[in-house]
TrEMBL record:
Name of the protein in its database record: Glycosyltransferase involved in cell wall biosynthesis/GT2 family glycosyltransferase
Matching InterPro entries: Glyco_trans_2-like, Glycosyltransf_2, Nucleotide-diphossugar_trans
Coiled-coil segments: none
Organism of origin: Kineosporia succinea
PANTHER family linked to this entry: GLYCOSYLTRANSFERASE, GLYCOSYLTRANSFERASE 2-LIKE DOMAIN-CONTAINING PROTEIN
Glycosyltransferase 2-like domain boundaries: 466-641
Lineage, top ranks: Bacteria, Bacillati, Actinomycetota, Actinomycetes, Kineosporiales
Length: 884
């Protein structure tokens, strides 16, 4: 078997910069999967480090032993390619002056030598560090050209393009790379062979603003090894730090923009606040990189009287790389009490020292530099944070100093902060994320150009619908879903694929859902599928993100033109849509001018063969729903519905609600139903579209059958638990039948859930429906008239001004059910069939009152029962078991 070989190239031009360290962390994941690791440190790319064409000497001493130093063959023989050419090109980038006439010739020569070198080494994967930074745009363009030529031999994505810095984050105050729109800087190119990695969410957003059509741009935070431990043996002795001293570590380069002077000010201030032990500062950085900075820091320490407390320790080996025979940042942090990072406001990078401290279990201090909140501050970490102005002013405040003193003198607080930050940090910065990224690349497939960004292309002129498809680990179901959408038909044959597009919202899938979706879509000419990501877990969050984006695209295209109707269509990955699903929805929405179109949800009876008692309960529920919805219009279900874009935006879109689950706030899963309530309450029409059919996955029933039977599918004891009952398995028949007793119980919970929500609720929200001929035909004139009179009385009695707050509709609907159940069941028997039967038994407490014949007393006790918030008895009686 051919050897797997990873080629790493860094545009940083130094053997052990932060860019190289992060590249080698990713490279280590390749190494653990059998790759030989080759590293080109970029001497022949970046001219301002003074190492252009310089031979390697002792660089390997600072690298792990599994790294082999390499470079591209024959670059020094390319005519015109030299430091002066690179410097001239960078000036052109910055000032917009013309490129040299030899530029294209140099690019082609570079590309040929890169490709030839890869072939000689048998390279199977490439890792590019900071290639988009326009230090050398000739090399960047040559690299893209070499990838395009070499890619067919690999036959899949083989390049991770990892940008740490971009024009707007690297030395922004210097204007080194010019200003937007950076006309000469090579934009990232869409390629079937490249996957792009941004350092954080802000960099990803900014990149997509710059390159709106870029596909496959993902965020990979810098990662840290939380398993690594060091004991720091001999570290203090080697650097003259007393064993009893408190030690503050600073692990950055000693250059002006890093502002290590603030740590010296801090040590001087602490000397007057901590008297029982001396406080030392260790500055880890190469003192020869910028001697004037070191001299200024030494003078500052002397002037403040802390020269004996400031240790200039020199460069240390990286924390997360095994470099033999050298002290590392891990050794320093093993001995440190705190890590300090009081850097400049416009610090342009990630802030690795903070991540290293978190992974080492060491509390940290930091300024609120420009990217701090983006990278660390919003992740629930605990630390003293020194405010810093955009002019880089950051005086040490009494409050900040008090927090630092408390961390140094209170062991219990120190321990709590360390443990808290470590637990939070591993969630975001654990090394497993790097490993997952590498696995994703190595198992990837070549796909046709399909979108994968957070900013989708503008909506095309003829597109009338966007299908929003939330997914999480749906690889087993996607083939049928995509085939179903690709196979949509209209009255004259295949549906014009220009009428709709698909917005797949990936909700943290860990399987091949996303790559498979792209591959499946690419097989169908004209089928447009865009992929976006929603990191907050929950189908409600994903559906809202997709619909918000779809609505925004339509609003941007259509503006105030009220004659152009556009529909957001919800779909569910584990259900199946009929071939004319979209056409039926489109026709009904256009014809009725409704705000929402509700699909016909059904089960295939064949899946319940041999399970007659379960099927009878399901079938009665479905038949009741069809009759009720044909009169009342129904309510949307995420399995399939359409909403007019303007109606969606008029009510503010899907509203998320949250509930507690195991000590965490999680999104509520009834977003679809509650959205329907929101629209219905505005007086807009909801139309039931029986021809737009959606087959429900029968595994949903099997997945929650015991809870359905017992009426606990969504909680008990008055506690509403809106858990997602959707299974992840593909659609297939199976499971047990119900017993006679279970069948009765399941039907009773189903009909008790159905009637308040599907018949009564619509009338409560829109009382004018009780004047509709179809509703009167269903209910009878007398029942419709008495319900119309009773609804405002109950509304006034509850003192509710609105039924929009989540679940507020239940009390009035439950009350109306108890008062009118006998008549409502009689009308369902007449319209649906005699097998609907009679109302389930009343709760004993209400039956006792009913037996007295005192109807006023019965109504009063119904009110008390339904408004009892303490016991949850009413909730348990109705059970929310309507998952059929």
């Amino acid at each position: 078997m051919p050897e797997s070989v990873l080629w790493c190239v860094s545009f940083d031009g130094t053997p052990l910069s932060g860019v190289v360290v992060e590249s080698l962390k990713l490279a280590d994941a390749f190494r653990q999967r059998g790759h030989r690791v080759l590293l080109d440190v970029g001497y022949d790319i970046k001219e301002d480090k003074g190492r252009f064409f310089a031979p390697y000497t002792d660089e390997a001493d600072g690298l792990p032993p599994w790294v082999e130093l390499v470079r591209v063959d024959g670059l020094d023989s390319i005519p015109w390619y030299n430091p002066a050419f690179v410097a001239s090109t960078l000036r052109a980038v910055r000032f917009g002056t013309p490129l040299q006439g030899c530029f294209d010739v140099v690019v082609e020569a570079l590309a040929r030598r890169i490709e030839a070198t890869w072939r000689r080494h048998g390279v199977t994967a490439v890792l590019v560090g900071n290639g988009t930074l326009p230090e050398n745009i000739a090399y960047t363009r040559a690299l893209y050209r070499a990838i395009d030529r070499y890619g067919p031999a690999i036959g899949r994505p083989f390049v991770l393009w990892h940008d740490h810095d971009l024009m707007w984050t690297s030395e922004p105050s210097s204007g080194k790379y010019g200003s937007p729109p950076y006309p000469l800087a090579p934009k990232p190119l869409n390629s079937p062979y490249i996957r792009y990695l941004a350092l954080h969410e802000d960099a990803r957003r900014r990149t997509l603003e710059w390159v709106p059509d870029l596909r496959d741009l993902r965020v990979l935070h810098n990662t840290f090894d939380f398993e690594r431990s060091a004991v720091g043996i001999g570290f203090r002795e080697a650097h003259g730090i007393p064993a009893e001293a408190a030690l503050i570590a600073r692990c950055t380069r000693l250059i002006p923009q890093k502002r290590a002077d603030r740590e010296i000010d801090l040590i001087a201030a602490l000397r007057h606040r901590i008297h029982d032990r001396p406080v030392y500062l260790f500055l880890a950085g190469d003192p020869t990189e910028h001697p004037p900075t070191v001299a200024a820091l030494e003078e500052q320490a002397r002037r403040l009287g802390v020269s004996d407390r400031v240790i200039f320790g020199g460069r240390l080996a990286p924390r997360d790389l095994d470099v033999p025979h050298a002290f590392s940042v891990a050794d320093l942090l093993a001995e440190a009490d705190l890590m300090s990072f009081l850097t400049s406001y416009d610090y342009e990078s990630y802030g690795n020292p903070i991540g290293e401290a978190i992974a080492s279990g060491v509390p940290y201090l930091t300024t609120r530099y420009a990217l701090y909140d983006t990278v660390y501050g919003r992740k629930g970490l605990h630390a003293p944070v020194l405010e810093v102005s955009s002019q880089d002013e950051a005086p040490l405040t009494p409050e900040f100093l008090a927090d630092v003193v408390e961390l140094l003198t209170n062991p219990r607080l120190h321990s709590r902060v360390s443990a808290h930050n470590r637990a939070r940090g591993e969630r975001y910065f654990g090394r497993s994320r790097a490993a997952e990224t590498v696995d994703d690349l190595l198992t990837g497939v070549v796909t046709a150009p399909v979108w994968a960004g957070d900013t989708v292309p503008p909506l095309e002129a003829g597109t009338r619908m966007t299908v929003v498809l939330p997914v999480k680990d749906e690889a087993a179901n996607l083939p049928a879903v995509i085939e179903g959408l690709a196979g949509q038909t209209g009255p004259g044959g295949p549906l014009d694929r220009g009428l709709f597009d698909i917005l797949l919202v990936d909700n943290n899938s860990r399987d091949e859902t996303v790559s498979l979706a792209r591959e499946l879509a690419s097989r169908h000419e004209g089928l447009r599928l865009w992929v976006i990501h929603e990191s907050e877990q929950g189908v409600s969050c994903a559906r809202r993100t997709g619909m918000d984006l779809a609505a925004a695209r339509a609003a941007e295209r259509d503006g105030d033109d009220a004659t152009r109707r556009f529909y957001l269509v919800s779909a569910d990955a584990d259900c199946r849509v009929a071939p004319d699903w979209l056409w039926e929805l489109l026709s009904a929405m256009d014809g009725e001018k409704a705000a929402i179109g509700v699909c016909d949800y059904y089960y295939d009876a064949a899946h319940f063969a041999g399970r007659p008692l379960l099927w009878e309960a399901i079938d009665r529920t479905i038949r009741s729903r069809r009759v009720a919805w044909s009169r009342f219009g129904g309510f949307p279900d995420g399995k399939g519905f359409a909403v007019d874009r303007r109606s969606y935006q008029r009510v503010g879109g899907i509203e998320l609600s949250y509930q507690m689950e195991n000590g965490r706030l999680v999104s509520h899963l009834s977003d679809d139903w509650d959205f329907g309530i929101l629209v219905r309450a505005t007086g807009e029409d909801i139309v039931y579209v029986p021809g737009s059919r959606v087959e429900i996955n029968p595994r949903r029933v099997d997945h929650a059958i015991d809870e359905v039977v017992a009426g606990r599918a969504y909680g008990s004891g008055g506690i509403i638990t809106m858990r997602d009952i959707r299974p992840t398995e593909s659609m297939r028949p199976g499971g047990r039948d119900l017993t006679e007793a279970e069948a009765v119980q399941a039907w009773e919970f189903s009909i008790k859930d159905f009637m308040p929500k599907n018949m009564i609720l619509a009338a409560v929200l829109t009382p004018s429906l009780l004047d509709d001929e179809g509703v009167i035909d269903l209910l009878s004139p007398g029942l419709a008239r008495r319900m119309a009179a009773r609804i405002p009385e109950i509304t006034a009695d509850t003192h509710l001004h609105s039924y929009l707050p989540i679940h507020s509709y239940k009390t009035p609907c439950f009350r109306l059910y108890f008062e009118f159940a006998e008549e409502l069941f009689a009308r369902l028997r007449a319209k649906v069939g005699p097998d609907i039967g009679y109302p389930p038994p009343l709760p004993d407490c209400l039956q006792e009152v009913r037996d007295t014949g005192d109807e006023d007393r019965f109504r009063e006790m119904v009110r008390q029962y339904c408004e009892d918030r303490e016991s949850g008895e009413a909730h348990d009686y109705f059970g929310n078991g309507g998952v059929f």
